[in-house]
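User: Teach me something about this protein's shape.
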Amino acid sequence: MYEDVKSFNKIEEDLIELIPLGDSFDEDTLIGLIIAASEEIDNYLRSQYKTPLNPVPTTVKRFCYNITKYYLYSDHARVIPEEIEVLYKSTISSLKSISKGISQLAGLDNNKPAEIADSKAIKYPSRFNNLGYFNQWNKFLKS
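Assistant: First, the predicted structure itself:
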């Protein structure tokens, strides 16, 4: 889990007013939503990093908080406040950017999956390697 239940105390107070009568949530529900948010984050990050992350960057904790908060409101509130929906969409956009390698998480350079960490060793063939094409062209011209 990338976030702690304690982070959600204020949200819990806010949600109590928004929850329809007869619906409720408890700490187990909150833990389940934090786990779901953490798994969603891992799904995006595993293309660039070994997951689960350890140590967990502050940015990832914020991502988890934003996603869990969105899940809480979407599951238990009558209406999702616009700022929560905007934060969720922004978080997912950031995660997509990281998963595509467009942006990175600070401090996790040594946490790359093996296939990415070793990719620097891959040499792509060049048409000018060992002057192969050049030598073939010279042979053609001499013939």
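Now, about its shape. Helices lie at 9-18, 27-45, 58-76, 82-99, 114-117, 132-142. Residues 5-114 form one domain. If you'd like, I can walk through any region in more detail.
User: That's plenty for now, thanks!
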